[in-house]
Design a protein that fits this description.
mainly alpha
């Protein structure tokens, strides 16, 4: 299949179809060949997303959606945490410096999704105090920022609750019982 002839949305959908098919078939994996097929489908999903990032001119929102999905797959299906962290760091920086007039709630949601992956999922996968401490410091800043922000939408309140939960878990992992 020639990916160049497809729209970015079609390539994203193709990636999702590879992943969905892998997950549907995962209960049927009984031997090495089926496991290789499963891994190949996961790999094709990752390759499709990487192709999308490198060969299309994506908006900041599209890039955030694609990058978060890519990081999610890398974190859940591989041990390539460094690559996931690289992708997350890159999009977090891009989102931080993105200027827009007014509040773009879908983009805000993607930003929070990336932050959740970086501050909770990644440190939990690495399972090291060093990473918990960094994530806790950044999570404290996130909670402080969200608490002081004047635009308290329902979406903002939901993410604030999620990051308070993350804060509690990070403190538990670091044995900071006084902060919990």
């Amino acid at each position: 299949m020639d990916l160049q002839s497809l729209s970015p949305e079609a390539v994203y959908q193709l990636s999702q179809e590879y992943l969905d098919h892998a997950y549907r078939e995962s209960n049927n994996v009984r031997d090495e060949e089926q496991l290789r097929d499963y891994r190949k489908l996961i790999s094709m999903s990752v390759i499709s997303l990487e192709y999308l990032k490198s060969n299309y001119s994506l908006s900041i929102g599209q890039d955030a959606k694609v990058t978060c999905r890519l990081a999610e797959i890398l974190l859940s299906e591989t041990l390539n945490f460094d690559l996931a962290e690289t992708y997350l760091s890159s999009i977090r920086e891009r989102l931080q410096y993105h200027q827009s007039s007014g509040i773009n709630w879908p983009l805000f949601h993607e930003k929070m999704r990336c932050e959740f992956l970086a501050l909770y999922v990644l440190p939990m996968k690495r399972d090291e105090n060093f990473h918990y401490k960094i994530a806790l410091r950044n999570c404290d800043e996130m909670v402080g920022f969200m608490t002081s922000w004047k635009h308290q939408s329902l979406l903002m309140r939901h993410w604030l609750l999620i990051f308070r939960y993350v804060n509690i878990w990070l403190n538990i992992k670091l044995h900071n019982v006084k902060r919990v």
